[in-house]
Amino acid sequence: xxxxxxxxxxxxxxxxxxxxxxxxxxxxxxxxxxxxxxxxxxxxxxxxxxxxxxxxxxxxxxxxxxxxxxxxxxxxxxxxxxxxxxxxxxxxxxxxxxxxxxxxxxxxxxxxxxxxxxxxxxxxxxxxxxxxxxxxxxxxxxxxxxxxxxxxxxxxxxxxxxxxxxxxxxxxxxxx
Length: 176
Hints:
The protein is 61% helix and 0% strand. The chain has 176 residues and is mainly α. Helix 1 (3-35) packs antiparallel against helix 4 (107-126) and helix 3 (82-104) packs antiparallel against helix 4. The longest helix has 33 residues, at 3-35. It is elongated, with a radius of gyration of 29 Å.
């Protein structure tokens, strides 16, 4: 099956991305702090602290999403409740970031975001269970009047399911 390997890959990618986002924002915070330049009257120390805090927050967010994917991989069960909402929000974030990085960074960053988006969506979709089919008529118990045979010489194809009851309905009664 493809479910568990996809969940493992998503978990690893989100953990690496969490570390990368936190490290990049921390580095940018250090660079802004050392420049001692004001941007629209903002204090450089405030901008540096904001970049570092933002990096930690987004890093923890991606790490939490990675933890959800890791739990899905270990348990081999679909994400439910808050974990499913986290993974859906991570997919939305990657879609939006992919749209932004196309123009700001380039097509390689866009490609990375789209691949991660596709992996998250694949993780969410492979664990969806199809709707259970419901039978309108319960299968009839085998007996002398319903032994699974046909009285038309086998012209209906004789297809039967595993329970022994015919797949086609019995012929309608006729009036004399």
